[in-house]
Design a protein that fits this description.
The protein is 0% helix and 47% strand. It has a four-stranded antiparallel beta sheet with strand order 4-5-6-7, with no helix packed on it. The chain has 72 residues and is an all-beta fold.
């Protein structure tokens, strides 16, 4: 389960997973502890509904909405 999006959070896609900084600490999401099947994050996009879209290198497209992961 991804953590609920916070307005002041900064999301960073890396070759070692997805990182979220909430202003105090980092939380990293990898294929070991999330639905991600590939740790190489190639793109991030937040749509007008505040859904965070996560693109990976060959591992699919994911979304994080209201604290829940979805694989597309």
């Amino acid at each position: 389960m991804c953590e609920k999006y916070r307005t002041l959070s900064i999301w960073v896609g890396t070759h070692a997973g997805l990182a979220r900084f909430d202003g105090v600490q980092f939380k990293t999401f990898t294929k070991q502890d999330s639905p991600l099947t590939n740790d190489k994050i190639t793109s991030l996009y937040e749509d007008s509904n505040k859904v965070l879209w996560i693109g990976t290198d060959g591992g699919g497209l994911y979304s994080c909405e209201k604290g829940l992961w979805n694989c597309k």
